[in-house]
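Quick bug: ATP-dependent helicase C-terminal domain-containing protein output formatted oddly.
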Amino acid sequence: MAGTQRLNCKCLLQACERGRGAILLAVARGKVSEGVDFDHHFGRCVVMMGIPFMYTQSRILKARLEYLRDQFNIRENDFLTFDAMRHAAQCVGRAMRGKTDYGILLFADKRFARADKRSKLPKWIQEHLADNKCNLSTEEAVQLCRPWLRQMAQPFTREDQLGISLLTKEQISSPECIERIQKHAHQAH
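Here's what came back:
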């Protein structure tokens, strides 16, 4: 990592640690979008501008698309859309690294509202992309985000968390879950 990059990264982390926050701009398919995690307070909002489609004039990509079409009957557009949505999910997922992490993912492109695009995103994203949350103006998005962020910024006490589980009762009582719990308990001893 170059000296300037290291300094910029250090400044970003310091701003977040001091409660000032920071804005980090990165390019989809770049180093930051695929290998660096911004969990917890280091990444509370990701804005995806556009859809990260591959450069389609590459000879290698053209050969791959031809192979997929000839061998598996996969249309070029289907593959390109699938790949772009996979990369979009990777990018926005940099800020959501665990079950208890939270953040806002903004897909700032009208094409994300289309069913053929949304259906290729992972389920954990699709579940929150209801029709009434797509194609919003900037003002509408701010009105949705502001109270949610205000609520999430409140400290959680241990007492508030008692009795709250990330799993449903059915999941906890399933044989697979019981087996996993017993396995982890056995490994801990």
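Actually, after a second look the formatting is fine. The beta strands are 45-49, 104-108. Closing.
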